[in-house]
Specification:
The protein is mainly alpha-helical. The chain has 15 helices and 4 strands.
Length: 356
């Protein structure tokens, strides 16, 4: 009895380009087109992080902005318990991937906010390159020393004394303060606050979404188109049980399906377009049908006049004629004389016969 061959392995190895390694893992890398997250090797191959911490970090990085990532919320999403998730979060916090701090809300409430950085080494390097604010030197102003007044004698203090006191000498003017360099003032006033640790590139979930395009409608919804579209939509559940539509959904989808039928699309083509190559998991079948009926709507078929080759412009060629006097060939719609013979006859005053 012959040894059974593993055809699945042979077929999979045939799809791998290049020479195959003699040992170790063999990668079958198919490029992602949607629903993927970029993870650096510094996290995926971190020598000090456990596999649980790496998996929790990848899970947090794949979640959209604003998603709850507390221990209880992660335990509800993952199979690990709260103790293992808490230990993994502590590991990520120790290596700079995670930052948790308390934020006081109005009304004496305190909430825990979480920051996740996908490249903590780049964040530290960015902070080290930030310029530090330059202090502005304040020149010291020399203080004026109060002058000591000599005590007056009793004779000078008496009102009847005729001796005038000597005038006090005026204090010397203070030297002007040195001007502050304009460069220091500019640096001190223009220094902006430090930028945030990292700017999210994904818009928040509360960002306004563009309006959806309206569903296509036929030029005239005849009873025949209405009946054919209703039958096609009702028959989808025979081919794909997930497309078991209600009567209200069918009434909404009848006009776009009738538009496809009006544009001479075959019912089998419409059915394959709607139910093949479905996303996994399929959560909203009606929304998927509306999107495909709108985005994949074919143009109307061209008519016979549109397919006809355009008529080429007719080129009128003037025939050759032979001059009656000199037998020279010239182009003219009618027989007559050439240009030289016409000029000679006009000079002689004779009758000139030429084309009109």
């Amino acid at each position: 009895m012959d040894t059974q061959q593993n055809t699945a392995l042979t077929r999979a190895l045939a799809e791998v380009p290049g020479p195959l390694p003699t040992s170790g893992v063999i990668h079958i890398a198919i490029p992602h087109t949607d629903r993927f997250t970029i993870v650096g090797n510094h996290l995926a191959q971190h020598p000090d992080l456990s596999c649980t911490a790496v998996g929790i970090a990848v899970r947090i990085q794949s979640l959209p902005q604003g998603t709850e990532v507390s221990i209880k919320a992660l335990a509800a999403r993952c199979k690990e318990g709260e103790k293992r998730i808490a230990a993994a979060l502590r590991e990520l916090e120790a290596h700079g991937y995670l930052q948790r701090f308390r934020h006081r809300l109005p009304g004496e409430k305190v909430a825990t906010r979480t920051l996740f950085c996908n490249q903590p080494a780049a964040l530290v390097r960015l902070r080290s390159q930030m310029p530090s604010p330059v202090p502005v030197p304040v020149p010291e102003q020399p203080q004026a020393q109060p002058q000591a007044h000599a005590p007056q004698s009793e004779a000078e203090s008496e009102s009847g004394s005729g001796v005038e006191p000597e005038p006090e000498p005026e204090p010397a003017p203070l030297p002007p303060a040195p001007p502050v360099p304009a460069v220091l003032l500019t640096v001190a006033t223009v220094t902006s606050p430090p930028p945030p640790p990292f700017v999210p590139l994904v818009p928040p979930p509360t960002a306004p979404k563009p309006p959806r395009p309206p569903l296509p409608r036929p030029g005239t919804l005849t009873p025949e188109l209405d009946r054919a579209a209703t039958a096609l939509l009702s028959d989808l559940r025979r081919h794909a049980p997930r497309f078991t539509l209600s009567e209200g959904d069918i009434r909404q989808l009848v006009p776009p399906v009738a538009t496809w039928l009006e544009r001479d699309a075959h019912p089998d083509t419409i059915r394959r377009t709607l139910i093949e190559d479905l996303p996994q998991p399929l959560r909203h079948p009606v929304k998927l049908l509306k999107h495909r009926l709108t985005a994949l709507l074919p143009p109307p078929l061209p008519g016979a006049c549109d397919l006809a080759a355009p008529a080429r412009p007719r080129i009128v060629v003037t025939p050759f004629q032979t001059c009656d006097d000199c037998d020279r060939a010239f182009r003219s719609p009618a027989p007559g004389h050439c240009r030289d013979c016409r000029e000679t006859r006009e000079h002689r005053g004779e009758d000139v016969r030429t084309a009109a």
